[in-house]
Design a protein that fits this description.
2 copies of one chain form a homodimer. Chain A is α/β, with parallel strands linked by helices. Chain A is built from 8 helices and 11 strands. Chain A has one domain: Rossmann fold. A 7-stranded mixed sheet of chain A has the order 3-2-4-5-1-8-9. A 4-stranded mixed sheet of chain A has the order 6-7-10-11. Chains A, B: Its EC number is 3.4.13.21.
Chain lengths: ~240, ~240
């Protein structure tokens, strides 16, 4: 049933956020999506992350309106009898943001996480925003989300050899709040784990073209590695194994 | 080996934070702790949450210095050959903050979570701050922490019939950040769960005396229940079943 596309180029956009302040849903990245999806007529939407707990239908409608502006039809994965078949046959796939724990939970529950990895690695164009980007990493251990459900595993697709911290926030030097900063949380992660973590600020995204991973948007991103000082990567940096080492 | 104390009064302090801005470790709550632990000479410290990834020894030393000021000796649970025996024999127990996922992971790994629940319910005085407070709830699903390790379960002690959101933060109306507010995250929790959640601001704590649960400190706390508007509870409120219903 799966049209083997292994000779095609891997094409992925991994965005920190769906929305930047003061603009509409996907608006800031729509010109990029128009060119990225230029050969695509239909997209499969995965609404499992349910931001603010909205229904799959409501969330899919939101994606449908945004993609309608670039003449791409959207169908929600929940509209298919067989979600795995929907993934295998999809022309392109978009996983929206929301709660990463619930997203990963449903990807396992509906038995689509492996198929998703396989088709994206074989060339099905993929867009992730926020939670949908977190699942492109090795595991979901750098999500900012609340653990509102217990997924069977934290392992995700590993489409890139590092993890994403979406909506990356710099410490606020004027804050009187004693909760951990994002940087402290990621440093705690590296006490127990070796996987590098990229803090992607809102408005930034990664464009993966085969094995090239490029930082896009206007902002720098912050790279955290175990036992090393965090470093800033400029926009347009190609994230190589040497940079991650 | 366990000195059965079931006729004693349950005594628990559940604090949002160990430290309020501009003061030393436990300083704001030390007068309260002096009276709460007035019959106690030694306290067992559980350093499993490892804030910023510090070692058990370093963390225990921090607790030792603070409790030294009120003439209470501190011993870390990791200094004992048998952690379960240490819990069962402890005169009083303090679990410090840090990463809730790692704390819960170690409580299961060291097989002490059940014993901890049993002794506290039987009268061993217990202090929790931050992550150490989250584990007093039904489960750890309202932690703000990053899932840096995968614990065998999210279930915790259930010493109180609701969950804690420590370091509760009100939405910042001036923020341009698109990540979810704390309130949105807790509302997402209630799409999937029924357990009430109490947002405890820094400087607030709960004092549990048998089955009375009283909000202490100067601030109000924010109570979230499934399918209801969130409400503010004033300081000194006794949190009854009616309030939680």
């Amino acid at each position: 049933m799966f049209d083997l596309r292994k000779y095609k180029v891997k094409k992925i956009i991994i965005a920190s956020t769906s929305t930047v302040h003061g603009t509409g849903y996907l608006e800031y990245i729509l010109p990029e999506l128009k060119s990225f999806f230029n050969k695509v007529k239909t997209i499969l939407f995965i609404p499992y992350a349910r931001p603010s707990g909205i229904s799959y239908d409501t969330y899919t409608e939101k994606a449908r309106v945004a993609f309608g502006k670039i003449n791409i039809q959207v169908k929600g994965i929940h509209e298919f009898d067989n979600p795995e078949e929907a993934v295998l046959k999809a022309e392109a796939i978009f996983t929206g943001g929301g709660n990463t724990f619930e997203l990963v939970n449903q990807l396992y529950k509906n038995d689509v996480i492996t198929s998703l990895k396989v088709v994206v690695e074989s060339g099905t164009p993929y867009l992730g925003t926020s939670a949908g980007s977190n699942i492109c990493g090795v595991n979901m251990m750098n999500t900012n989300d609340m653990p509102i459900v217990y997924p069977p595993s934290f392992d995700t697709m590993g489409l890139i050899p590092f993890n994403i911290n979406a909506h990356y926030l710099d410490p606020d030097p004027t804050s009187k709040h004693m909760g951990e900063t994002r940087e402290t949380r990621i440093k705690e992660f590296h006490v127990f784990n070796k996987v590098p973590v990229l803090g992607l600020r809102e408005g930034s995204w990664l464009e993966v073209s085969n094995n090239d991973i490029k930082l896009k948007g206007e902002l720098s991103a912050r790279l955290f590695r175990k036992n090393k000082e965090a470093v800033e990567l400029d926009a347009e940096t190609i994230i190589t194994q040497e940079i991650l080492a």
